[in-house]
Amino acid sequence: MKFLITGVNGQLGYDVKRELESRGYINICSPSREELDITNEQMVAKVMLEYRPDVVIHCAAYTAVDKAEEERDLCYDINVNGTSYLVKYASEVRAKFMYISTDYVFDGTKTGVYEVDDINKPINYYGETKWLGEQRVREYFNHIIVRISWVFGINGKNFVKTMLKLAETRSELGVVSDQIGSPTYTEDLSKLLVDMALSDKTGTYHATNEGYCSWNEFAKYIFEVNGIDIKVNEVLTKDYKTVAKRPLNSKLDKSKLESDGFERLPDWQDAVKRYSKVLRKEGNK
User: Fold this and answer.
1) Is the torsion defined by CA of 252, 7, 81, 56 positive or negative?
2) Going by C-beta distance under 8 Å and a sequence separation of 6 or more, which residues neighbour residue 173?
3) What pLDDT score does 285 carry?
4) How far apart are the C-alpha atoms of 285 and 280, rounded to whole Å?
5) Which of 49, 97, 238, 258 has its CA 20 to 30 A from that of 87?
């Protein structure tokens, strides 16, 4: 099988490539941004029609949530136009198309967990463009959409690394306590994505590590497993001003994974423990 991965220099794309390689796959096209600018239709056409992948795993995205409010044209170009071009040429070569989406397609006002078919009401521009990207993907029959949240991995910036860095110079932090969701470890998620790529399943899924927490609880656990003594104060969203609004409830229902024969990801606490060990090992090199 031949795979094309976009965004291979990001957290998720990096681990998806590693997972494919660990399973013995060698026909992997993982172009850099310079080699494949997804906002350039001619470049997309050239790469897709020459390589002719069996599966496209589209991990590339504009993800700077606050900057997206100001850089709307760029965000739209990457998340909507770029996705449209990839889908167009995936359909020409009859490739399975996998699109990574986000909890931010929901407004966060629901009391319970969000089902895959719940109404989408993004409250920030980033979420809106990811939702528009989903709509483009659904125009092609052979697709899988996977919504994820609170991502952390070895390759790139994330909340875990930020907390550990801040702890080097501070004895006290304020972290939001009323936004609830699930962390997602890219090493765990990449295994699931490859399983999905190799399956005959299509449709929309939610995939995060098991369990829910607030950003505040997430931060406290990061410090706990790394043996760091630091005070973490609770801050409400209304008192923590950001350019873009964030949903308060990002709880995603993942029961469809089980019903379609896929394994759920491990608990988020287990993922943070394993990830912290990897970070310590990397830091000691």
Assistant:
1) negative
2) 163, 166, 167, 219, 230, 231, 232, 233
3) 41
4) 9
5) 258
